[in-house]
Design goal:
The structure is a single chain. With 368 residues, this protein is mainly β. The chain has helices at 2-26, 108-111, and strands spanning 32-33, 45-49, 55-61, 64-69, 73-78, 83-87, 99-104, 113-122, 125-136, 139-151, 161-163, 169-172, 191-195, 211-214, 219-224, 230-234, 246-250, 275-276, 289-291, 294-299, 304-311, 314-321, 329-334, 340-344, 360-363. A hairpin with a 2-residue loop joins β9 and β10. The protein is globular.
Length: 368
């Protein structure tokens, strides 16, 4: 009898501790330091790494996380918390440029391919390119340049990459502060691109080129919902007047209007966003994932984790989580075990960095 009671007592204790911890965090408690991959019970909020330099993207590998830092390195953060910095050659960190997006090949377990989007020097200026590497023995070896000569500048460099359900690589590019190129289908700037794993135009692309959609200012989020629809987040206007950040439903060949229209403005052949932030609110959306009926994205100026609740092709509500608690939030990634991993971006020159910044924080979406 005593042997039966002992396991039951342990379970009860764990449940009580989990409940207390949840209530403490829900009332504004600080994240708890935990190993990268924790066992059950699930913890609502955990800080998994700190003291990073402008972390921009995350990929999940067997031994932990690969994290791009805009300053020009990939940080390996192992499941036990230990870390190794992997420098990446040829990166120019300038303004919003540097080492940006990262994604793994769908067959990564076999070929070990990691794709990196980076800003590189071109004379006195900057150009963006996509380079494929092999990740083996905790190091990166360049395999080949997939695409180069993507317009680059101090601002509006795009940089998000995802392999879609169709197996092709989708890439967001910014207008590189030259608004006109967003409407020029011969330019790679201000677009969402779709390509093969080797950088060739994907079969069925609407214009027979790499261009999948155009008329974008600075898109930095890509995600597919459970019906296979492609969504994107995009930075709206900036300067004295900001706001009008966008959530777009992306279709092949569609023109999303920049710089001709913005917000609720319309024009012949131009697509309006499904939802925008309004003229008096700025999200500065810099990522996107889909989970359980909602789109989640980080807000830089908005300093929040945003949740856009979907009903088919409509956004019926936009929720704010952790508003002002962690400063600028850039990337959101969904881990294989169903957690949201978010990165702060307080050391990028526009935030108020604490001693622990920049950080990666793990969130159980069920707790939001």
């Amino acid at each position: 009898m005593n042997d039966l009671k002992r396991p039951l007592s342990i379970v009860v204790i764990l449940l009580v501790l989990g409940t207390v911890l949840y209530l403490a965090l829900k009332d504004g408690g600080n994240p708890v330091d935990l190993p990268l991959m924790s066992a059950e019970p699930r913890v609502p909020l955990a800080e998994v790494a700190g003291d990073l330099e402008i972390p921009w993207d995350i990929a999940f590998v067997e031994e932990g996380l690969l994290v791009t830092e805009r300053t020009g390195s990939v940080e390996l953060i192992r499941n036990d918390g230990s870390r190794t910095e992997i420098p990446v050659a040829g990166v120019r960190e300038r303004g919003e440029g540097g080492l940006l997006g990262m994604t793994l090949h769908p067959d990564f377990s076999r070929n070990r391919y990691v794709y990196l989007y980076m800003s590189s020097p071109e004379g006195a200026g900057t150009t963006n390119r996509i380079v494929r590497y092999r990740y083996e023995s905790e190091s990166l070896t360049e395999d080949r340049v997939i695409l180069e000569s993507i317009p680059g500048a101090i601002y509006h460099d795009g940089g998000r990459m995802e392999f879609g359900p169709d197996g092709f690589l989708y890439v967001t590019t910014g207008d590189a502060t030259n608004e006109a190129i967003a409407q020029d289908r011969a330019s790679l700037g201000g677009k969402i691109l779709r390509m093969t794993e080797d950088g060739e135009p994907a079969p069925g692309n609407p214009f027979g080129s790499l261009v999948y959609s155009y008329g974008h200012r600075n898109p930095q989020g890509l995600a597919w919902d459970d019906a296979g629809r492609l969504w994107s987040t995009e930075h709206g206007r900036s300067g004295v007047t900001s706001g009008l950040d966008e959530i777009n439903l992306i279709e092949a060949g569609a023109n999303y209007g920049w710089p001709t229209v913005e917000g609720d403005e319309t024009g012949e052949g131009l697509r309006a966003p499904v939802r925008h932030s309004g003229s008096s609110d700025t999200w500065a959306p810099a990522s996107l994932v889909y989970h359980n009926g909602s789109l989640y994205f980080g807000g830089l100026k908005g300093e929040a984790l945003y949740e856009a609740v979907l009903e088919g092709t409509r956004v019926i509500e936009v929720k704010e989580h952790f508003k002002g608690e962690y400063g600028r939030i850039r990337t959101v990634r969904l881990s294989p075990d169903g957690y949201l991993y978010i990165t702060t971006s307080n050391t990028d020159g526009r935030g108020n960095a604490s001693d622990a910044d920049d950080r990666i924080i793990r969130v159980d979406p069920a707790s939001l």
